[in-house]
Input
Amino acid sequence: MREITKIAPAEGKLGILIPGMGAVTTTFIAGVEAIRRGLAKPIGSVTQLSTVRLGKRTDGRSPLIKDFVPLAGLDDLVFGGWDIFEDNCYEAAQRAGVLEASLLDKVREPLSAISPMKAVFDKNPGIKVLEGPVDTNWDPAEAQRVMASLLAKYPQIDAVMSDYGLGSMGALRAFVAAGRKIPLWPGQDANELGCFWEDHKADNPDFKLATVTARTWLVRVALRKAVGAVQGISDTEPSIIVLPLAEDSTSSDPALAPKCVRTLPPDAILSTMLPKEKLEKLFAK
Output
């Protein structure tokens, strides 16, 4: 007989700590604050608007997930995070340019109260950040334009850190167009990025590539935990996941070598945990 797991009601405040307080994080927090104030609806939120079917379809029992599972309410969420830059959430959201200024101004007070905790550069004072954060709206063409101006401004750039694998491509093309050697490059994995490294590593000895996974697989973990909670099945997978490097061109471990599959499109994410054959079949549709 299956053991039923009892889920205790959520009580008190729920702290949410996020590494990196850029465009994605500030848009998320601003959205929650806007919903709290009745300025927006939680469109796309599984916890707030989605339902779960109980019994047969004909039973007509489909309560909201938030009414069925004892989750913390939006008013109980408290946000914090880390960043290498000192901008508070409001300033970072302004710089990112994702949200309309009219909406952003209405949540200025709570966003301004959230300042980042010091991140990795605090322990490495010898690293000098030349510019940033630089917003390119995840557009490779804009990334190329911005990087071209930075290359004209700075005769020496030892590393470029990117939060989006495909966004890196425009910046990398700017180095090639300017005839500059490509430096150390940390970012997120993407098929085109791995192929670019493979094509240019010989002519650019300082082009060391390190990426973390783009994390498309995390939805599986979340789904398994949600289904387990609803059905009373214990899920032992961790809720806090420390992301290791997905690729490291300096490593002797062949599993960490930058990956390139030329039969797949540029935006394929090879860390998705699907084998190459399945990815090829999916992208062929």
Remarks:
- The mean pLDDT is 89.
- Strands lie at 14-19, 77-83, 117-118, 185-188, 209-212, 245-248.
- The first helix runs from residue 23 to 36.
- The chain is about 35% helix and 10% strand.
